[in-house]
Design brief:
Structural class: alpha+beta
Largest sheet: 6 strands, antiparallel
Number of helices: 6
Radius of gyration: 18 Å
Number of strands: 9
Strand content: 15-25%
Shape: globular
Number of domains: 2
Strand order of the largest sheet: 4-9-5-6-7-8
């Protein structure tokens, strides 16, 4: 992917600001990986050690603006790591300051449509540890999903606790309590518990003990 960074990023991120985004990835020596949709996380950052590059992964099933926000979220972790290593909290004031600054930087490059830009600029001065899982951002970001996606698909964050839902693998789960930044959910098929990211795409369901095959686009 690194051989065609600009071409690849253009498939997933908004076109405006792509050159600057590529510059950030290259200047920080990042190995960028685009992953299939993961229920437990939207992206992650792994610091480079012993001369290896930093690694950032982002889910490839996100709409362009969500993809950019997740990438900026992880780049903020990288910037904090380069300055403080592991001497500060992962989502502490240093990360919030960095993430907010990156949001304003790309908002200034018109990387976001106006309604989303206004919300993001407001959010950038009061960043929460939940990052892009913030409920207000969640609802606005859904408006930019590709046409043709199922109308009944929503984010896990949006359904009540103790509700049943169908995940992308077709299994039915029960949404339980939130543990730090993830929701613990009970699989009705095998009675095992799994951690889901708040922005995992799910379909609310009344079904309890049967599997429903869903093909997410």
């Amino acid at each position: 992917m690194q051989l065609n960074l600009k071409e690849t990023l253009s498939r997933f991120a908004p076109p405006t600001g792509i050159d600057h985004l590529c510059g950030l990835v290259v200047s920080h020596h990042v190995q960028l990986l685009v992953k299939k949709g993961r229920v437990s996380k939207l992206g992650d950052f792994r610091p480079g050690l012993n001369g290896s590059p930093h690694r950032i992964s982002v889910n490839g099933d996100l709409n362009p603006y969500a993809f950019l926000l997740v990438l900026l979220h992880e780049l903020a972790h990288l910037q904090v790591w380069e300055q403080y290593r592991n001497k500060v909290k992962p989502h502490g004031k240093e990360w919030k300051k960095s993430f907010g600054a990156l949001i304003r930087e790309f908002a200034g490059k018109e990387s976001f449509p106006l309604p989303l830009k206004r919300t993001l600029l407001e959010y950038s001065w009061n960043v929460r540890a939940s990052g892009v899982a913030d409920v207000k951002l969640t609802k606005i970001l859904r408006q930019y999903d590709a046409p043709g996606k199922k109308n009944d698909v929503c984010f896990l964050e949006e359904i009540p606790l103790r509700s049943h839902f169908v995940a992308g693998n077709g299994r039915v789960f029960l949404k339980e309590e939130k543990i730090r930044t993830r929701y613990r959910c009970l699989c009705m098929d095998n009675q095992r518990k799994y951690l889901f990211h708040p922005l995992a795409k799910v379909i609310p369901s009344q079904a309890k003990n049967k599997q429903i095959q869903i093909n997410f686009k």
